[in-house]
Amino acid sequence: MKLDRPKDWYERRIALEGDLEVGAGVPPGYQAQAVAAPAAKPVETRIAFGTFVELWRRSRGWDAVKLAEEAGVSPEEVLEIERYPQSEPEPSAVYKLAQVFKVPAKILLELAGLVAPRTPNLRQAAVRFAARSESVAALNDRERAALEAFVAAITETAGTHE
After folding, report:
1. How far is CA 109 from the centre of its chain?
2. What is the pTM of this model?
3. CATH code of 137's domain
4. Is residue 19 part of a domain?
5. Do 119 and 110 meet the contact criterion of CB atoms below 8 Å apart?
6. I want to staple 98 with a disulfide (CB 3.0 to 4.6 A). Which of 50, 105, 128, 129 is the partner?
7. Which contiguous run of DSSP H or E holds residue 16?
């Protein structure tokens, strides 16, 4: 498909949209073409998302039922997010968890693989975070530091995209 506008025109328009989730559509007079489905889901970031949910919950001394009650989701959803990165969580559950965690929903949606990656270096930070965390009954100092650093990175990253 040949576009009749220069590339910089489109780049300026994209910059005006900021961080909004916007569909581009098709220029007038052109036939829409099917777009290939995205490749495999980002399991690496879902592992970090599940680890984040579990460590956040454990750092408060909560079980999955307590977190589910606070977020208004089912305990099964919480456990599925924590334990099964191959499973795609419901967007509404991710949004509700973000509210409980007081972190930006758009970052958690990206970690959960529900929106296209838009945050540079988030994948690397997520993988590093998940790799530094161990599943034990109580958070150790390293896990607590990793959790706090990751929350700070999420919050800082969101601030640059608003």
Report:
1. 3
2. 0.62
3. 1.10.260.40
4. no
5. yes
6. 105
7. helix 7-17
Q: Is residue 52 part of a domain?
A: yes
Phi-psi region of 72 (alpha: psi -120 to 50; beta: other; left: phi over 0): left
Q: Is the pLDDT of residue 4 over 80?
A: no
CA 110/CA 13 separation, integer angstroms:
23
| Residue range(s) defining the domain that contains residue 122 | 43-160
Q: What mean pLDDT comes out for the span 47-67?
A: 92
Within-domain flag for 8? no
Question: What local confidence, expressed as pLDDT, does residue 122 receive?
Answer: 83
Q: CA angle at residue 128 from 93 to 139, to 5 degrees?
A: 70
Beta strands in the chain (DSSP E): none
Q: Please give the structure tokens belonging to residue 142.
A: 């390293």
Contact 109, 115 (CB under 8 A): yes
pLDDT at 40 over 80: no
Higher-confidence position of 145 and 101 = 101
Based on the structure, what is the number of domains in the chain?
A: 1
Report the candidate in 88, 101, 110, 92 with the shortest Cα–Cα distance to residue 54: 101
